[in-house]
Structure of PH domain-containing protein:
Amino acid sequence: MPPSPSSPEPVTIRADRSWAVLAWIAAIVVVLGLTGITLTRGLDPVTAGLGVLMLVAVWRERGSHLTLDAHGVTAVMRRRRHSYRWDELLELGWAAQGPVSGLVARPTGGLFDDPGPNHPAWIFVLPRSGRRAAAEAREALAAWCQHTGVAYAVDGQDMELNAPPGSPYRTARGGSAAWRWLKRRA
């Protein structure tokens, strides 16, 4: 789809720089664990191991970004690229779950495709430290979905419990009655 003069600005969303701070903290934890500056006066493999796991997690997330433009949605996460043209998408949503929030996509495809029309999937994740980036991503995603005509789910978690857009089994409020009851109780 060629860009029109009224189309929203292209957007690239990245996690904020707090991951770099977390990497420094993890490095300090590793050094403390390996040098034995702990209460046990010796090598603390649990502390060192935890620090190494934190460093690996930070290292794997570097370079992750989400791009919304006139050509479609491109998500690069852990060096994996997921690209969808706007006409290949049935529905998009932004979901928050635990310590992360991210993009949930329901692309067109066959009955058993994963992700596909019957199985939406998370294709991009931001840490909770990127709340400002998550709010900007929601706004940009809603604007692009409205511009391109792709259905936008305000709460992306409902996509996982609901039928595809246009299905007679899709509930108007999202999810099953039991799911709505659980959400009210939370």
User: Anything to note?
Assistant: The mean pLDDT is 75. The CA atoms of residues 129 and 185 lie 26 Å apart. Helices lie at 18-35, 45-61, 131-148, 177-185.
